[in-house]
Amino acid sequence: MAGVTVVSLGAMLTGCSSDGGTSPTAPLLSTKGSLDGLLVNVQGTPQGNFGSLILMYPSGQHVGMTIAPDANGKFRFADLPAGEYQLRFQASGQAIVPEPYQHPIKFTIDAGKTTQLTVRIQRGSFAQNQVEIYCGDDFFQAQPDGTENGETIVPVGTVVCWYNVGRKVHTVTGGPWDDSGDLQRTQSYIWVATVPGVHAYRCTYNQPGMRATLRVVGR
Asked: To which H or E segment does residue 59 belong?
């Protein structure tokens, strides 16, 4: 695709086995595919050179690949192992993926094929006093680039939103909010940070590893 930025997870697999050389050579089959995407606004106009796209596993963990759309709003992730993924759009304070559009966006890569995906956003000036923390399977992580099961620091008055992006049921238990209750997949829990201090919290169902800290500081 001309003019498309490409990110690769590695070269195609080329190894194969035979029955001792008595069978004809078979063509090698790719175990990977690609994602071709387009970033547009809700009216369908391409949004070039704006924001970034973060690739994630179904568990919510970041694959470690982030890409920006090109001047035509196009982006590409090449050589992805076949399987399920999620895609997050990020442009802090400048745009959101509005309802009813799914976010993060779930999609599947099929071996030897290219998946087409359109990301629809709404541009504007959005309050930045909200922090989103993903509840993935076995970790909490502040978005877009926090440390898994680490500490998130926010000023008093910040809206903290924990969002279950994994496949399991999670809770946000501890701190002044006490307990979120069960969060099913795609459900969220919101707490306004009104109590300064260091607040440890955990997921009731994923112990001992799924623990993190929220530090609320004065402005």
From this structure: none
CB 5 within 8 A of CB 75: yes
Strand-pair partners of 213? 151, 200
Q: Is 55 exposed, middle or buried (0-12, 13-18, 19+ CB in 10 A)?
A: buried
CA distances from 129 to 55, 126, 132 (A): 24, 9, 10
Q: How far apart are the C-alpha atoms of 89 and 40, rounded to whole Å? A: 12
pTM, two decimals, is: 0.80
Domains, the chain:
6-10+30-123 (2.60.40.10), 130-217 (2.60.40.420)
Residue 87 CB coordination number (10 Å): 22
User: For residue range 119-143, what is the model confidence (pLDDT) as tens digits?
Assistant: 999 999 887 789 999 999 999 999 9
DSSP-H helix ranges across the chain: none
